[in-house]
Amino acid sequence: MNLPAAIEPSLLKRPDEDWPGHRLVVREPLPLDCGIDLGPFTIAYQTYGTLNADRSNAILICHALTGDQYVADPHPITRHPGWWSTMAGPRLVLDTDRYFLICANVLGGCMGTTGPKDIDLATGKPWALSFPVITVRDMVRAQKRLVEHLGIEQLFCVIGGSMGGMQVLEWAATYPDAVFAAVPVASAARHSAQNIAFHEVGRQAIMADPDWCGGDYLEAGRKPARGLAVARMAAHITYLSEAALHRKFGRNLQDRNTVTWGFDADFQVESYLRHQGSTFVDRFDANSYLYITRAMDYFDLAAEHGGALPAAFAGGKSRFCVISFTSDWLFPTSESRELVHALNAAAANVSFVEIETDKGHDAFLLHEPELFATLRGFLNGCAEHRGLPHD
Amino acid sequence: MSRSLAVPLSYAPAVEAPSARERLRRDLRVIADMIEPSARVLDIGCGDGELLAYLASEKGVDARGVELSQSGVNACVTQGLSVIQGDADRDLGAYPAGAFDVVVLSQTLQATRNPKLVLETLARIGRRAIVSFPNFGYWRVRLSLALRGRMPITPLLDHQWYDSPNIHLCTISDFVALCGEIGIRIERSVTLDRFGRPFALDPRGWLANLLAEQGVFVLTKGSE
To answer: Domain B17-135+169-221 sits in which CATH superfamily?
Structure first.
């Protein structure tokens, strides 16, 4: 799998290269946790704001499972505003007037960074299931290459929600000197049995779709849209809370006054989920979904450090701000609290806030004033300690 | 002597803003004065961070806090203080022994579920612990219960019995006895009157238990 460093760049030309943003082709192979060296590979990333002269104002934003690098500008396929456009921008919490924001599509992703839908130069065919299984740590190692390429020795902050939070923790554990502040939101130091179970349902839905073709659907010119849509529908339920679902939909019927005695989307909640599923398949690759969910399942930071979570953070100087949401049952507060206890045991500098909301796991993506206020204050305090402009 | 001193003091410009120390609540001022500069401090039940902010800015301490209320934690974090949302009963166990130079528990002990365990934990994770609490043996409290026959309400105990967070009230004598029982040494103590003014009385004596509205104790782990 190891390729000569002098690869013909035109071979790396990709169909999605006209999407906005930057591309970095990393030629030196990346040793993965599974034992395989991957390379060369591409990292697609976005930046916002300006890097200051001493390169000390960079914030790395880590995206979640189905997120991407389009944090604050429109998605090239859906044209929807960036997934954190309420958080990142001029005078917003992640203030582009002060900070230099970086967000890279994760390894294994489908928005420009090398993943299973790309061409394996060794075979000339899409990787599909021959793509190596990657881990959260591999994603972070790849991001480290990007950060080094940008000439940044220490990130002012690494921030992310859900799987993004896992990457934040992995950054702090693997490259403690490169992280001044770490903000894992709605996250955990390991993926729970329940979360693995939900992921398995999603993967089985994809693999049960005949159009998946054993993973080789690109070659076959097909798309496992139904399987991927079901995976998304099931997952989407876990991102919401019972209270939020009830508040939004209750038992309301969709464009009808009475049930139809059939299996149409009678209820608004059904219609909503179907919509979520069908729009998702337009922008996401099914095999990427398999690989990235697997990376989350394999994530167990304590296991990476001899079974003791505090050991992952021992000796680190990063300042942590851990945030959870009361109604998040996918990454419940108990997981964040366990993380905080481990950070305490490692004598780390940590703040922890549990934010009261009924919006469930998705709260980290939504307008949540307490979240904004907490982050603003935390970053401001960190900026003061780092000698950056602050309020 | 005190009279002649009073003259220049009264000329102290009244328009000048009070110092950061003077703005602190009286009992917190007593506690702050007990903490040496640059110490590692954990304030448990730190509220909106009044003491921590003072210690961080005026004494350069490494200030950490634990607070139960979301509004309190947010107020702290937005000031740049490192505070975790949690409580004394549940969230202290993970800290290693001697993690802090000073652990502060002000006006919170009486609201914990297991004060004995909390005290033992404080003595474990801090080289010193500073604990303040309202004295249930204070004469006004006693009088209120004895004469009115109702649960006492005072500025420090300002809740009705049915909505009070104070589930483990004690007197100074009770506290001193418990410290003795679990091998915690009282290094120093200050008793405060109802205006928060310190006065020195031996906490082991009956008079302190009668006259002090609250007590501030500096504790260390007794010799083993």
So the answer is: Vaccinia Virus protein VP39 (3.40.50.150)
